[in-house]
Write a structure and sequence with these properties.
The protein is of the alpha/beta class and 336 residues long. It folds into 2 domains: 4-132 and 269-331, 3-Layer(aba) Sandwich (D-Maltodextrin-Binding Protein, domain 2); 134-268, 3-Layer(aba) Sandwich (D-Maltodextrin-Binding Protein, domain 2), CATH 3.40.190.10. The protein is 35% helix and 20% strand. It has 12 helices and 10 strands. Strands 1, 2, 3, 4, 5, 6, 7, 8, 9 and 10 form a 10-stranded mixed β-sheet that branches. β1, α3 (43-54) and β2 (74-79) form a beta-alpha-beta unit. The chain is globular.
Length: 336
């Protein structure tokens, strides 16, 4: 992964005309940040794999010589953030070139509905690719006895941090059971902080909408033991009927060591950008995302990487596809 320190160093060199010893090469350098989530989540490591795959700064060895197969002159980097809402806001303001988002949050931002009701629409939001399903995890202490979301009433529960898509979905799931933040002892922590507090007995449960297996949850399952609480029932059935971006899902047994599987719901993780990003650049980014070298890196780099497939690159798209990415998908026959 090209980390933040390397990213800044390359930027300084580019400004000084010092990459490759030629100002012309420095001028060709392009930066492409990918907003993610907390470092213990799934967004951050997967974005790191993708950033590494699509980067090809001046001076890199050619692809056919075992070097980078990414976009010539591109330096991409995964940037930790508060999650979906924060990433979309950063894209909209120009603080980020792109970011990962839950499909529901992207749809609400683009249409000015849901949590964006009464706020300006993020009309420039565009899709690069749909990535993978994100499962709604409700994690409880081993032996908690929780059988349903309804059992959270009066309990100490972390709903994730402000700016995250998880917090949005957690409130929707609570509402499906007639609950709000006020009916629980709510906290708003990143997944790793939540896992630490659960381990120490300072929390009863926490929520994480993420691809499984998620690192902090896996570690917790292996060290302290956890239970997954099912997310199902009449309220959830009604929610699924109302919002098409939710889907029925299941976290299988032993997705986390020694933990029984449960039925739950999911949304899609999507890679989004702004219509203001150049068509040619986003075309090259999409092309680099779906080349054979990236395929190998995704398959080897993270357990969820194998589920990122070209065949589902446009699945559940609630926002328009960026014209540059659309050109690539037309070439692949995914768009007529």
């Amino acid at each position: 992964m090209i980390d933040r320190r390397r990213f800044l160093a390359l930027g300084a060199l580019a400004a000084a005309g010092g990459i490759g010893g030629a100002p012309a090469q420095a001028q060709q350098l392009k930066f492409f940040r990918i907003g993610t989530g907390g470092t213990a989540g799934t967004y951050y490591p997967l974005a790191g794999v993708i950033a590494n795959a699509i980067s090809n700064p001046p001076g890199s060895r050619p692809c056919d010589q075992g070097g980078s197969c990414g976009v010539p002159g591109l330096v991409a980097t995964a940037v930790a953030s508060n999650g979906s809402v924060a990433n979309i806001n950063a894209i909209n303001s120009g603080a980020m070139e792109s970011g990962f988002s839950q499909s529901d949050v992207a749809y609400w931002a683009y249409t000015g509905t849901g949590i964006y009701e009464g706020k300006p629409k993020v009309e420039a939001l565009r899709l690069i690719a749909n990535l993978y399903p994100e499962s709604f995890h409700l994690i409880a202490r081993k032996g908690s006895g929780f059988k349903s979301v309804a059992d959270l009433k009066g309990k100490r529960v972390s709903l994730d941090e402000p700016g995250s898509g998880t917090l949005v979905d957690a409130r929707m799931v609570l509402a499906a059971f007639g609950l709000t933040d006020k009916d629980i002892k709510a906290e708003y922590l990143k997944p790793q902080q939540s896992a630490d507090k659960l381990k120490d007995g300072a929390l009863d449960a926490f929520v994480s909408v993420t691809g499984y297996p998620q690192g902090a949850i896996s570690e917790l399952a292996a060290t302290s033991g956890i239970e997954l609480v099912p997310v199902e029932g009449p309220g959830i059935d009604k929610m699924l009927a109302q919002y098409s971006f939710f889907a029925r899902d299941e976290i299988p047994t032993d997705a986390y060591k020694g933990v029984a599987g449960v039925k739950t719901i999911s949304v899609n993780a999507q890679w989004v950008t702004s219509a203001k990003q150049p068509d040619d650049l986003v075309y090259e980014v999409a092309k680099a995302l779906w080349n054979d070298n990236t395929r190998k890196l995704l398959d080897a780099g993270h357990a969820k990487g194998k589920t990122i497939q070209l065949a589902t690159a446009l699945a559940g798209a609630g926002v328009p596809v960026h014209p540059g990415a659309e050109r690539f998908y037309k070439e692949k026959g995914l768009v007529k």
